[in-house]
Amino acid sequence: MKSSSIHIGLLGCGTVGAALVHLLTEQRDSVKHRTGLDLSIEAIVVNDINKERSIPLPNEVLTTDASSVIGNPEINLIVEVMGGIEPARELILGALNSGQPVVTANKELLAQHGAELYAAAEKSGVDLLFEAAVAGGIPVVRPLRESLSGEPITRIRGIINGTTNFILTRMTQDGVSFDEALLEAQELGYAELDSTYDVEGYDAGAKIAILATLAFGADVTSEDVQHEGISGITVEDIKFADRLGHCIKLVAVAEQIINQEGKSEIGVRVYPALIPFDHPLAAVNGSFNAVFVEGDAVGELMFYGPGAGGRPTASAVFGDVIDASGNLQRSHGSLIGALDRPLICPPESFESSFYLNLKVEDQPGVLARVAEVFENHGVSIQSMEQEGMASEARLTFITHSVHEKDLLHTLESLKSLDVVSNVDSVLRVVGD
Amino acid sequence: MKSSSIHIGLLGCGTVGAALVHLLTEQRDSVKHRTGLDLSIEAIVVNDINKERSIPLPNEVLTTDASSVIGNPEINLIVEVMGGIEPARELILGALNSGQPVVTANKELLAQHGAELYAAAEKSGVDLLFEAAVAGGIPVVRPLRESLSGEPITRIRGIINGTTNFILTRMTQDGVSFDEALLEAQELGYAELDSTYDVEGYDAGAKIAILATLAFGADVTSEDVQHEGISGITVEDIKFADRLGHCIKLVAVAEQIINQEGKSEIGVRVYPALIPFDHPLAAVNGSFNAVFVEGDAVGELMFYGPGAGGRPTASAVFGDVIDASGNLQRSHGSLIGALDRPLICPPESFESSFYLNLKVEDQPGVLARVAEVFENHGVSIQSMEQEGMASEARLTFITHSVHEKDLLHTLESLKSLDVVSNVDSVLRVVGD
Predict the structure, then answer these.
(1) Angstrom distance (rounded) from CA A71 to CA B48
(2) B247: which chain A residues are within 8 Å (Cβ-Cβ)?
(3) What is the C-alpha to C-alpha distance for residues A284 and A304, in angstroms, rounded to an integer?
C-alpha cells in the first residue's frame, strides 16, 4: 500500500487534545500499516505556550498563532478541540472555506451554529466530522449520518449526560441525597462547580439538538430544546419508582410528531423520567451513556458506551481524523486494505472464568476432596453452592479466571474421583 | 441541491430484497430531497420470473440474466441479497472488477472469501459495503470500519444469533426445554428445519469471523472459528446460573492474545456462557442481537438492535446503498445537505405516560375522589400504590399515555382538592 502523509493542525490541547496526541503517537505505525496514512501533528495552537502539559510536546509544534494553520496549504486537516463558540466558529469556517477538512468535538458550537457550518462544508466539498461532539466515545453520529441515512427515524432517546447519570446512579444504588451525590461528582471532577449546565439539562439539550438535526435532516438548535433538570428528584421518588418496577434517569428526547393540522413537528426535550427495569436504557449506569434510536424499518437500536473522558473522546476524534484523511487520498475502495493471515490461538491457550456443575455423593468430606482437586491444579474458586438430593448432592462452582488447559486437567481429575458421580455442565463465564 | 440518478441492479428478491424494494420506493422522495440522490431499481435478477412475490414488481424489471447488470455501464450500483457462495462470489467480483460498487448482505461469502473481495474492491477503488451481513439492522460494521479504525480493539463479544437467543430466552423466562423451544422457533419461522447451522454456532461463527477481520485487520475466516453449541444446555443449568447471579447466552468472541513467545494471536470462538445480570449483554433477549466492543482507548461500547428480519436488514442495506451512491457522486461535504428550520412542538402537544406521587389525608373515600379527578380528565391509571403515614397517606400512580395538556389540567384539579395535601412529584415514564 502506498503511503500518504497527512499533516494535522490541532486547535486546543486540553484533556481531549492531549489524549489525542498520545493516541496518535502510539498508533501511528499501526494506522500507517493498515491504511497507508502517515498522520502527524505539525502544529498545536494554544493560548499559552509555557503552560505545563501532561504530555511531552516539542516546543516548535506549539504556537499561539491560529493563522499559521488555517488556510495553510501545508496543513491537510484541522482538528478543533478548544471548545466554546468564538474563535472556534470563525476558525472552522476559515478552514472549511479554504478547503481544509475539519474534525471537531465542539457540541455547543454545533448545537448553536451547526447549519452554518454544515453548509460551509457542503459548499467547499470537504469533510466536517464531529463524532466526539455528542456522546464521547460512542460511535452514534456516523451511524446516524450514514448507516441510517435512509431510515425513517421516529424518535431518539438518550442518556447523554454523565454527571446527572452518575448522581442518579449514586442516589439509586446507595441512597445518598441529590446534594451529597452532586458534591461527590464535583470532588471527583465529573461535575463543574457551577453545575447548572449539567444538572438542569443544558448539556444533554445541546447534544440532543445535534442528534435531532441528524435524524430529521432539519436545523434544530439548542434554543429549541425544552428543559427540566434533576435537582428536584429525591431518594423517595427513586424508591417509589423502584417499587413500581422503574428507575429514574435524565432522558433527552427528539421525536417527530404529526400535529392536528397534519403537519410534521419536531419535539426536542430533556427531562427526568421513569424507565421500566426491562428497558435497555435502564441498564445504563454511572458515567456511561446510551442513545436509543427508533425507526420505522429498523425497529429499535441502542448505542452504549463511555459518554465522556479524555481517552474515549480522543478515540472518537481519531476515527474521524482517519476517515477525513482517507477521503483526502483515495477514491474509495474497501477501506480494509490488504489482509494478512493471523496466528490463530490454539483452544488451550485461552483464559476464562468457568461454571461447573457436579453430581457428587452426599457424604462428609466430599467438598474438601473436590476443593483439593481444584487447588492442585491452581484453579481458585470464586463462588460455590451445594444442594442435597437424597443420597447425592450437587455442587456448582464459579472459578476465577484460569488457563483453559488447567481447567481441562482439573476436569480429568474430578472425573476420576470416586465421590464425583458426574460432571453435568462446564460453561464459560463472561467476566472482565 | 442538484439531483443525480443512481440505477441499481438487484441480485435476488427474497425477504430482504422485497423489503428493500418496498423501503426504497417509500423513501425515494425523502432521500432525493435530503441527499440529491434519485435511487431507482432498474433490474432484479431472479431464478424464476414467474414466482409469486409479496410485492408488486413491473415484469420488465425482472430478469434471469445476471450478465445484463454486471458490468453494464447503465447500472451504477449492484446490491446482492441472493445469498450462498456461487454464483454470488463470481458476480460480485465481476461487478467490482468492472468498477461497479457493491452492497451485499452475504455473511457466508464474506466469512469464507472476504479477503479476495476486499482486495478486488481496493484494486478497483470502488465501495464494497456489507452492513447487513453481520447483525441485521444494527449498524456495527461501519462504526468498526470507520469510527474505530484507529482504536486498538482488544476484544469483541457478540450475541449475534437470533435463533439461539430466542431459544435460551424462552428456556430462561418460561422454563421450557431446549427441544420444545427449538420446535417453537421452527414453527415461528425463526429456525430452519435443519437447525445445526444456528444451534451449533456456525451462523454466529461466520459473523464473528467478519467482525474479527474488521477489528484486527487480518484475514480471519469461518474455518478459524472454534464452535460449541447450545444443544447441551438444560433448564437446570439456567436455574443454577440464575442463583449465582447469571444468565446463559450463546456468545461469539474475537480477541487478540499475546502468546508465550510474545506474538499476537487471534482467538475466534462461539460458546454458551454465563453472563452476570449487571453486564449490558445480559439484557439482550429474544431475537435481539448485540455486539460488545472493548478497546484500549475507548473502553467499552455496545451496539444493540434487531439481528434479523426483512425490514431491519433492508434498512442496513439501504444505508449502504445511499452511502455508496453518495460516494459515486460527490467529493465529500457535510453529508447533511441544506437544512430547513422545522416546526417545533409546543410543550402541551406531547403524549406520555406519567408517574404522580401525592400526599393525601388518610380518610375513607380519598382514593375514590382522587380517581374521579383522573377520570374526569380522561386520564387512565396503569398502576397504583397506597402507603399510610399517621394521619396522612401517600398515593403513587403510573398513568397510561395521555396528552400532556390533559395531565396539566388533572394536576390543577388535584391540587384544588381539599383531601390532597401536596403533589410531591410528577415525572414522565419512558414507555413504548
Answers:
(1) 58
(2) none
(3) 8
* Residue B117, CA distances (Å) to A105, A297, B89, B129 in order: 35, 29, 8, 11
CB burial of residue A47 (10 Å; 0-12, 13-18, 19+) = exposed
The whole-number pLDDT of residue B339 equals 63
Residue of B nearest to A217 (CA): B339
| Mutation site for B-interface testing, chosen from A228, A430, A432 by largest number of B Cβ within 10 Å | A430
Task: Check B207, B239, B249, B263 and give the catalytic one.
Answer: B207
Q: What is the pLDDT of residues B353-394, one digit of tens each?
A: 898 989 998 888 888 899 999 999 999 998 888 887 778 888
Between B138, B145, B334, which is nearest A118 by CB? B334
All three cell numbers of A345: 490461538
- % of chain B with per-residue pLDDT over 70: 96
Question: pLDDT at position A432, please?
Answer: 60
Q: Beta A392-399 vs B4-11: how paired, if at all?
A: unpaired
How high is the ipTM of this complex? 0.87
- Give helix B107-124 / helix B202-216 axis angle, nearest 10°: 30
Q: Is 3.40.50.720 the CATH number for A4-136+313-329?
A: yes
A127 vs A111: CA distance, rounded Å? 18
Does B124 reach chain A within 8 Å, measured CB to CB?
yes
For residue A289 the three cell numbers come to: 451513556
The pLDDT score that the predictor gives to residue A322 is 92
Is the link from the previous residue into A58 a cis peptide, with omega within 30 of 0? no
Query: Could you list the active site residues of A?
Result: 207
Q: Where in chain A is the domain with CATH 3.40.50.720?
A: 4-136+313-329
B300 interfacial to chain A (CB closer than 8 Å):
yes
Q: Which set of grid coordinates corresponds to residue A202? A: 443544558
The C-alpha of B246 sits at a distance from chain A's nearest C-alpha, in angstroms, of 9
Per-residue cell: A403: 488457563
CA closest to B147 among chain A residues = A319
Per the prediction, chain B carries an average pLDDT of 89
Residue matched to cell numbers 400532556: B404
Pick the CATH number of B347-429 from 3.30.160.20, 3.30.565.10, 3.30.70.260, 3.40.50.720: 3.30.70.260
Flag if A342 and B146 touch (Cβ within 8 Å). Answer: no
Cβ of residue B369 closer than 8 Å to a chain A Cβ: no
| Mean pLDDT for the stretch of residues B120-132 | 91
Chain A residues close to B318, C-beta within 8 Å: 150-151, 297
Q: Does A198 touch chain B (CB under 8 A)?
A: no
Secondary structure of chain B: what % helix, strand, coil (to 5)? 40, 30, 30
A303 contacts B147 by C-beta, under 8 angstroms: no
Q: How many CB atoms lie within 10 A of CB A26?
A: 14
CA separation for the pair A432, B216 (Å, rounded): 20
Cα separation, A152 vs B315, in Å, equals 9
Cα–Cα dist A411/B197, whole Å? 28
Residue ranges of chain A that CATH labels 3.30.70.260: 347-429
pTM for the full model? 0.88
* Bond into B143 cis (ω within 30): no
Q: What angle do CA A228, A231, A236 make, to 5 degrees?
A: 110
Nearest Cα neighbor of A200 from A189, A211, A191 is A191
CATH 3.30.360.10 maps onto chain B at: 141-307
Chain A contact for B149, CB < 8 A?
A: yes
List chain A residues with pLDDT less than 70.
1-3, 330-339, 431-432
CA distance B50 to chain A (A): 28
pLDDT of residue B432: 60
Q: Which of B265, B343, B425 sits opposite A264 (nearest CB)?
A: B343
Q: Which fold has domain B141-307?
A: Dihydrodipicolinate Reductase; domain 2 (3.30.360)
